[in-house]
Here is the input.
Amino acid sequence: MDAIFLQILNGLDKGGAYALIALGLTLVFGTLGVVNFAHGAIFMMGAFCAVTLEKLLTLSVKVKDESVTFFDAYKETPYLELWFGDTGTAIIDWSVPLSIILAVPVMLLIGIVMERSLIRYFYKRPHAEQILVTFGLAIVLQELVKAAFGANPIPQGAPDIVSGSAAVGAIFGLGEAVVYPWWRLIYLAFSLITIGLVFSFLHFTTYGMVVRAGMADRETVELLGINIERRFTIVFGIAAVVAGLAGVMYTPVLPPDYHLGMDFLVLSFVVVVVGGMGSLPGAVAAGFLLGILQSFSSMTEVKDIFPGIDQIIIYLVAVVILLTRPRGLLGRRGVMES
Amino acid sequence: MSNTKIVSPKKDMIFMAILSAVVLTMPLWLQPFGAAYPDLMQKFMIFGIFAIGYNILFGLTGYLSFGHAAFLGVGSYTAVWSFKLLSMNVIPALIFGTVLSGLFALAIGFVSLRRSGIYFSILTLAFAQMSYNLAYSVLTPITNGETGLQLEQADPRVLDRMSGIEADASLPTPNLFGIEGIGYSGFYICAALMLISFFIYLRIFRSPFGLKLRAIKSNQNRMGYTGFSTRPYLMTAFVISGMYAGLAGSLLAVTDPLAGAERMQWTASGEVVLITILGGVGTLIGPLLGAGIIKYFENIFSAFNDTVLLNAFSFLPDWLAHPIASVVGLFVGEGWHLTLGLVFMLIVIFLPGGIMEGISRLSRLLFKREKTEPKSDGHENKEKEQTSAGEV
Amino acid sequence: MSETKLIGNVSRRTILKGSAATTGAALIGGTFPMHFIKNAHAQTFRGDPGSASSVKLGFNVPQTGPYADEGADELRAYQLAVKHINGEGDGGMLNTMKPLELKGNGILGKKVEFVTGDTQTKSDAARASAKRMIEKDNVAMVTGGSSSGVAIAVQGLCQEMGVIFMAGLTHSNDTTGKDKKRYGFRHFFNAYMSGQAIAPVLLDEYGNERRAYHLTADYTWGWTQEESIKAATENIGWETVNTVRTPVGAGDFSQYITPVLNSGADVLILNHYGKDMVNSLTQAVQFGLRDKQVNGKNFEIVVPLYSRLMAQGAGEAAKGILGTTNWHWSLTDAGSQAFVKSFGQEYGFPPSQAAHTCYVQTLLYANACEMAGTFAPWEVIKQLEGFEFDGAGNGPTLYRAEDHQCFKDVLVVRGKENPQSNFDLLEVVKNVPRAQVEYPADMFGGELGPYQV
Here is the structure.
């Protein structure tokens, strides 16, 4: 029972990450009709916003370690600690949550620049060309990050206060032994809130409603004299912010490296397609579904019956769903089926 | 692709003759490019076969498969098993590799072709990733996992033993009745098979069957209304291209008898998509050019290191050579992926039809100047096209 | 179809003429490489520099993909080795290695040059790259690699091609076990040695009543390590609760870690390397495993194969974690000091264990050629087989003739709690003497194959 409860939590946590990435991807597809293979790279760049901020905050006075004579080894004391003492240490400790403040404008800017300078020329081009150009862009972005930060993962710590585990078992009456890391619970809450915000934005603001109207019938909205293109640019920016924030918050779980985006790319596409191309609720539902199934399939009891099932579960589910529900869980007719 | 003209068989034969001449003389004219060594030329041929096969499906029908690497992998594994169990002769390896990949394609195609568009793509991707993940881990007894399936001294090689061919102390080499699969002879084996494959591919392009596939691409519904059932045609195209991939995979094993699981990874499937689009989707010769360029990048650009660069720029004064070498160094050697990414972007942005579009624009520019004014946007790409064409 | 239009402009006659000429040339082109054919002449061999004034070596390392940083460090070490062999720089280990016949004038009087290639950590790409070095650049030796799969694949190729392969970082028992080759040599230690070296330390630190839970990367290297570590720990009285295989590149390991919490195990052994290890260790610590008390004991995590680059990637999580490593820059013997000094002065930071093994391998090959008086691989192999040397950083070392595995001291290290500097991430717990990690040569099976191919 405990094990199953924990696996559900694992699955929700994983699902939260998948859903956030897939949400942005499907938002871009639904509005602009662009298949964006650079979306994973945007996720990765979000994570590197956290890395950059941490590097900035820990700019240090370098005191040479005299015991090492053959090269320059030094002990670093960050300026922040020198200047502000414990306050400085606390700021550095909170660098990951603080990166959100940096990541929002940066990712919005990256998204808008990307859309204005490249993506918009590909609205009417075939999907294959969109895939190729954004794939090229993804490679360029990740290679630039590699040139700047190296290929090794760069660890990012969660703030001390939340680096322990929460006794979730007690809450659900499962005993003291059932604990779960605070940060992962925060990540789950964060993804739910972000998903909620995006949905409220699209459903309860006029701006969002116009965007949704544009997704459904672009021509009519334009005939009404609304500059839908500008709104779609903003939507692309929002998608980049969502992916970027997902990246920032994920850094304490996965130490980021330049290849992070590619690792998530295929997976996020499977999530989007299983959910149904262009369907936001579908993407979210599929994200959580696949996350939970992935967790369950890696339990020893399951693997004893189906060896290697955890290696293929995601794809197996994709095949089954696409064969039983032709357009994914909640897909609309006529999307991507020319 | 509405400009399908009736091309006389005679012209096709001339075309084949020129192609054969160009391919067979590769060891000579690739010399200045540093690419005239057997392994790379074999790769040009093998990935050429893979890409033209892929073009039969993607170029003609528009169905974008992300899972063709699985067929390449099945072809390789089958060929190596044929070497291990039956004979070091390449004939059974090639036949079994191609046929088994075809059967595998039949099974995957049967399921995947129930859907179209991106759903088809994801289905093929899912099958290929499952094959890869399983081959890497739980199927290790068959695939030898991460290391890859290799030949061993103690392999049965039933047919060879029966006909009295015993391996000596060193490992036997795949051969075509004594012609070795490695080195230059291996290149000529690959080249011959590539030319045969290309001829079949040419016939498919020109056949009524090819025409119907194109019709599916332009409007599948309309095809349906006119009473055609498109599924059998799609199925046939899928299986044929799967067999081409299987042949390419078996040839990989012929020239280098080791089959690694990463051959089936999604990036390998992605590579053949890139090759085809880079060269020119739906064009005859484009996929061959694309294969050449990508493999050239992978093998030659990645090998430029700082020392090579400094030598290359040694004619410059020192203070200039170092900064230039370090800037260029970003794009070659360990940075070759960056160049690859940039090339994709530039090609797709400016030449959506791939290199073939570049070449035809260029030829319009050169030959028809007097007739019609060339499109102005041909100008800016001229240089790029020349260099990319020159690398092949 | 534009290409057929183009043809229309060329007369048939010119084509016939042209193709006749070119096919003729092709035939000549085809005959050129005939002298590469196996056994065409007993004295010829691939990579023979002949009368050239220089000899080329091939450095085949991962330049893209997850091990790119490790590959870059290997490449630095190779370049340093080439410098030292050619008599440039301060000579590094040339001053400390014994016996050594290198004179600082290249190999056999020929200046050493090198070519590089990208393995992409894939056996296919690595073999293609090695083939380019052999076929195009005519290298006398290929070296490199940052994964066992790649090393075994390239080693197999080098055996077929008749070119010596000096393996870089490869830790699987198979490299010099069931997949050993006459033309392949490994200086790095292996999973079995890790197990033998770490077991006594584990006994000292954690006692003999422990219950271990293994998470293992689901591929050949992971399995051999799991097998070796399991045998070694069971030997000291530990019980193995469970062994679970994880997909390579899983990223998030939470679904494999939560079952550990309530399994009754009190030690987690991570048979992961590279990014998998960084992720699984970070997440295991995040799940509070290290703060746990099970069976009245502190829960412990062990990472049998450790490296400084990975400790860096895992950051705080690596502190206090035990593991083994082939070599570490803080060693104070003369050979290590000489190497760290020249590497540090050249690049400004200390070398990794991968850099060390690659540097030593290059010197060993060069020295063997010098001793053999020829580049002919079968002669060089005979010099390397059974070669005993000292002063290369791991104490007296033997290149065992039967399986081409080096036997030397192994380090047990621990992630440092209070680093003195930015490179001070591991502390050496124990320098395990060579005698303790030795094993019979036929233990892992395999055939070396012939000297001449």
Observations:
- Residues 11-16+34-265 of chain B form one domain.
- The two ends of chain B are 25 Å apart (CA to CA).
- Residues 372-392 of chain B have pLDDT under 50 and may be disordered.
- The interface with chain A takes residues 58, 64, 111, 114-119, 122-123, 125-127, 129-130, 133-134, 136-139, 266, 270, 273-274, 277, 281, 330, 335, 337-338, 340-345, 348-349, 352 of chain B (CB under 8 Å).
